[in-house]
Amino acid sequence: MAGRDARRLGTAGERRARDFLCRQGLVELQRNYHCRAGELDLVMLDRQILVFVEVRQRRAGGLTTAAESVDRHKQKKLAAAALSFLSRQPQLASRTMRFDVVALNSRPSGDFTIEWIKDAFRPDA
Question: If I label 118, which of 41, 66, 102, 107 is the partner at 20 to 30 A Cα–Cα?
Answer without folding.
Answer: 107
